[in-house]
């Protein structure tokens, strides 16, 4: 269990709501109801927790694995699309040459990315990218900066004999957070263990080695907190004999739902696609899976009316389905969690389930990145790609009906998506690492709620 103190001087996470109505009720009486008073609201700040680097955790088992480690390329990129003053730890993100402000440095910058509100609601994205060809941590991971909340759901990872998972909990607020961790496995919800409860001090992070509490090939983790919001990253890596077999950061997906969408997997490529479904309930859930591609909607054979016991996690192969870039959809009679794993040559990626958004941003460094957009109703979306210095590389408007796929330009570093209706967006990135293919999955960083009126109504 590792504790890390974040840099001092970090501001607390701003909280707010798009609108709040307060009613103060006195004794029953016939009274005049005055007109509500309206107070002008303000745009919210952005507070994102950026991740630490991966660590070797398999000990003597992988000593000298595959010879010496190859050189590691580790970089952090930040894009500030809108808002006021922006800081990453003690670094001020200054105005750049292009339309957006960017930060590009070697290494990881574990801590808070904060953007104060400006004339428009703040929007930003960031990620650290890790590239390594050989060694225990061989592969590519793009680990995004994410917004802290009081409930997060991570579907992915394993703690079998050849796998490791580190749960990183980051608190960028000024209050200690009491954190509860629930782990669902292939055989059911894990009993109380050393992972189940911990406290993360203000402006600190804590790393929990998941295999110290739970050993299982299929994991889904729920993280809830009180006293302060938490950002949760699950940093995973695997080995195959004496060879590193990939790294990936599992990031939070959508909350349990009876309709779960996972966009971004290519069903026509050489990669292997597996869908993981978890039942976090105390009763059984019955679900069915469909695949939506440019060829239409296809019910997945062998994945119709599947019953999943309480607390259990199931992996289902998506191989052999027709079509190409897809949105995988899980419909269930009770809320479930889901994500997709994509296996390439020597590495793997996890694609999280997504919430529909009308605006968001993503960092896509040094990779061939594919964006898959899916909408339940026909809409249009504009995708603008930016270079490392914030210059516009390309901008395109696509019809999402119900699916659209865009490949990022080679020199793109960030992307901003704006749509007329709400869309689900999944990003799958690959990089040639000579002997292996690095692969990583991402989803959009959403724009926070903007300015709104606060209505106060008092009944005397």
What can be said about this structure in brief?
This protein has no helices and 37 strands. It has 460 residues and is an all-beta fold.
Terminal CA distance reads 54 Å
What is the number of helical segments per DSSP (H or I, 4+ residues)? 0
Tell me the strand percentage band.
over 45%
Task: State mean pLDDT (0 to 100 scale).
Answer: 88
Cα-based radius of gyration, to the nearest Å: 22 Å
In this structure, how is the largest beta sheet organized? Answer: 8 strands, antiparallel
Low-pLDDT stretches? 8-31, 451-460
Total beta strand runs: 37
Residue share in helix: under 10%
The secondary structure category is mainly beta
Shape: globular
Describe this structure in words.
By secondary structure, the protein is mostly beta strands. It is 0% helix and 55% strand. It is globular.
